[in-house]
UniProtKB/TrEMBL annotation, chains A, B:
Domain of life according to the entry: Bacteria
Residues the entry annotates as binding substrate: Y110
Catalytic reactions on record: uridine(38/39/40) in tRNA = pseudouridine(38/39/40) in tRNA
Family, as annotated: Belongs to the tRNA pseudouridine synthase TruA family.
Span of domain Pseudouridine synthase I TruA alpha/beta: 8-104, 143-244
Protein name in UniProt: tRNA pseudouridine synthase A
Biological source species: Clostridium magnum DSM 2767
EC number: 5.4.99.12
HAMAP family, sorted: TruA
UniProt xrefs under NCBIfam families: hisT_truA
């Protein structure tokens, strides 16, 4: 038995997220179908995380066990020939049999893209969230410093997953302006359900002036989801890298 | 009667091009339907050009005559509320009654985007053409200099439109590298059918080494379509600006 690790890029627009479901098409299902087509056997694929419907990935990681004799690096080309055009294997490699894409992950980097301006975008609209209100970038940067570090992020999680602890460490938040786009780059050791999207939603409340930057401290302390900002739409979110 | 000029952004992926057709959904049709919804009257819209199925625009221009009393600048918001998410009016303004979006155009700027690399892209795949072979950028730049200026571009046009002359003036060709993307920026006084896509296809033949840069001179002189490169796919092409 061999353990194959895959790094995947996907456009999540037309999928109900990563995880297999009974009544909706998911990325996990498409990858498992491609593995079955290539190896002739069914393998369950273990993903580094669940991504929601509409969320994209440039460096999603998953692994699967197989008895196939196909050289690990050949899986990339073989799987890509069976996958639809919105899913691409970037890398395939053999890893130790004990490797587990979810349990062994020590961190992830996400990017959330906002586009501002007078009009909603037509081109690229599936990859960015249109936000028409003026944003104070410096205030958002000040607020983001309070989110850095180790905190109980209960106020920044939506119901939907059962986890033992809501304590996580955010190692980096960068807010980058690029023309009329604003990118939020968030790196941490792990993320609660919708946590990145709620962090961005909260920073937007700071950017518009509804929240003062320091209010983020109160939100964290409160552990009360209703205090934080809205969860911004899925289409602006992209999982860029998973660390092991 | 008033004449309204519209500047439009659209994602051409799901349309059979600009021009109205009987059996396919086009951008012209969507814009005319939105005008009818806003004004209550049918207006024919005159486009600056036909764009093919799958071609995008950031600055397409069209105009229409109307008896509506709606202030010109209000058309933008009104039409956008009726248009689908892949078509956006960027600007609406009143122009002289004699203004004609096609006949008065004195030039256009197009951009063609190629992505290189080991794997086809999933994210953004509708906006770029994946080309996996190595390209010699400097040779493509040398070749592009022969295309600059006024020539008979008969070798660079596909059958499909009747025009009086095949003489056009190309004022600018810039080839810009941006990570693993290559953008071809082409500006000219007018373009024959598929001309930008055939220019890019010909430059790619130079980039891979199949054509020498100087061979472009022979292609132009031959006026023979079969001598030039292939017409590259529509999805990489975007009409950026129309000049008046």
């Amino acid at each position: 038995m061999r353990n194959i690790k895959l790094t995947i890029e996907y456009d999540g627009t037309n999928y109900a997220g990563w995880q297999r479901q009974n009544n909706a098409v998911t990325i996990q299902q498409k990858v498992e179908e491609a593995i079955r087509d290539v190896t002739g056997k069914v393998s369950e694929v273990i993903g580094s995380s669940r991504t929601d419907s509409g969320v994209h990935a440039k460096g999603f990681v998953c692994n699967f066990l197989t008895e196939s004799k196909i050289p690990a690096e050949k899986f990339k080309k073989a799987l890509n020939s069976f996958l639809p055009e919105d899913i691409v294997i970037l890398q395939s490699e053999e890893v130790e049999i004990s490797f587990h894409a979810r349990f062994n992950s020590i961190g992830k980097r996400y990017e959330y893209t906002i586009i501002t301006g007078d009009q909603r975008p037509a081109i690229g609209r599936n990859y960015m969230y249109y936000f028409y209100r003026k944003l104070d970038i410096e205030n958002m940067r000040s607020a983001s410093k309070y989110i850095l570090g180790t905190h109980d992020f209960s106020a920044f999680k939506n119901a939907g997953s059962s986890v033992k602890t809501s304590v996580r460490t955010i190692k980096e938040i960068n807010i980058v302006e690029d023309g009329n786009m604003i990118r939020f780059i968030v790196m941490g050791d792990g993320f609660l359900y919708n946590m990145v999207r709620i962090i961005v939603g909260t920073l937007l409340e700071v950017g518009t002036g509804r929240f003062k930057p320091e209010y983020v401290v109160d939100i964290l302390k409160s552990k009360d989801r209703s205090k934080a900002g809205k969860s911004v739409p899925a289409n602006g979110l992209c999982l860029k890298e998973v660390f092991y």
